[in-house]
Structures are given as structure tokens and as C-alpha cells.
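User: Can you help me understand a structure? I only have the sequence.
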Amino acid sequence: MSANPVSLKQVLDDTARALAQAGIESARMEARRLACWALGCDAAGLLTRDTIPEDVRERLISAVKRRCRREPMAMIEGETGFWSLTLGVSEATLIPRGDSEALIEALLALRPDRASVRTILDLGTGTGCLLLAALSEYPEAFGVGIDLAPEAARLALRNAARNRLGTRSVFLAGSWFTALKGQFDLILSNPPYIPAGEIAGLMPEVRDYEPSRALAGGNDGLDAYRAILTEASDYLSPSGLVIFEIGQGQERDVTRIAQEKGLKLCEARADLGGIIRALCFEREDSALSPGYE
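Assistant: Let's start by predicting it. Here is the structure, written out as C-alpha cells:
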């Protein structure tokens, strides 16, 4: 790109070409998205422009270089959407993904009464996406988010304030149930579930930029489920739910671990790609049946 002001079309063409050469799929779409971010406008606003200011062009060039190094788009933009929320992101946490919304969909199907969930625990909260989405749907609920990384807990706290849920949530740094007391109507978790041998083969946006502690689930990918399910029943109310995100093909193993700890499967929900992504469990002696309140 020349140092002189150029047309927006030329900038978009150059950006799309650079992204395509870096192996980015949907390079043209991402070029327009980056241009919108640099200009601070939406897609409709982009259509009203013919040129791009010099300072904005330099900002865009810097962002393109980052994306060509396969830095995730959400990291460049500094935020992402999840459910009905807008959340800040950082390298301290996983980037919320649409697949994880299957957990909230399953929750709403099993607990349609919005007064039925009063206390929520989110283990490995990251950005706070699951807890905050659940709180947005259950207005009488209060939630606790736990993350091993203090910087993740601080980010989740900021996201709660940003989405006006700060008075109904608290975020702590710790390991799973450490120092917790009481019982919860809902325990949510998107724990690390990638087997150790598969980490190196992940796409570079994930492998190189998202925290390995939030990805690596041990040799078989199940370490976190074992740890959580060993104690989950002690923190679950009599009619409570445990809802996990799982990796592809882990349904049988996670269900077996849960059954060994006195929990029964009451819902398995697929994501938009048709992959089972959310597993829901309740106590073996629960009086509630799936979908009943």
C-alpha cells in the first residue's frame, strides 16, 4: 500500500490478498471486517466510504500483519459476541465460541421456569461467557465464576460490569471447588478437554494464542472431568444440574465418569455443526425429569 491516501477498494483488495496468502479462509470477508474495525463503523457504514484516512490505513495495516501471523480476529478487535452479550477477550482466556451456546440452549430446555435457577457456579469461567449468559436468562440468579488464572477472573469481572451483571456475580481465582461452600442449582463448565497429543495439531489461532492451561485435558482429555465430578455432587442442590461442554467423541466417557459419581445423564445437545457439545447431568435420586419444572 502506498504512503498516499488510496481508495477503500484498493485497500480491501490488498488486505484480502495478504490474508489469502497467509492461508486465511474467507479472506475477503475478513478484509471487510478488519476495515470496519479500523474505521469504527459497521458494514453499512463501509458502503458509504470511497477512501480511507491515512491514520486509519496505518492502523489497518498493523492489524493485517497481526492477522497474517494467525492472531485470532477477536484478539485484534478486543471483543467478541456470545449469546446476547458483548465480551472483552484477552490472551488469558479462551475466545468464546458459538458452539458453547449449546450449553445455554440445553439449560433453557431443562429449566424453562426463569425463577427455577437461583445459584450458579461456573468452573473455569474464562471470559465469564457461560455464567453471564445464564445470568442474563435467569434474572433472580446469582453466580460465582472460578478460574485458575487471576487475570482471567479480572477480565470476567469487567465483562460482568460491561453487561450490567456485576451486582449478581462474583469472580474468584482458584482451582475448581477450592475454598467453596454451599450448594448450587447449576454448575457450568467448559473445562480443558483436548488430549495432550492433539495440541500440536490445533489450528494456529488456537495453539499459538489461547492459553494451553484452558486447552490441555491430559493424556486422554478427561482429567478435568474426573477432578470436577469427584466433588460435584457435594456442591449440587438436590434438583440441580451439571452442564459440561465436551469435545467431539467424549460423550460416552464423560457420561461413564459422571455415573460412577452418582450423576445421571438427562440431556445431550449438539452444536450447530451437529456435534454433541453439551452434556447435562442430575443426581440419580433427582425428582425432576428432563424438561420438567
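Now, to help you interpret it: Residues 20 and 26 are 8 Å apart (CA to CA). The longest strand covers residues 236-245. Let me know which part you'd like to focus on.
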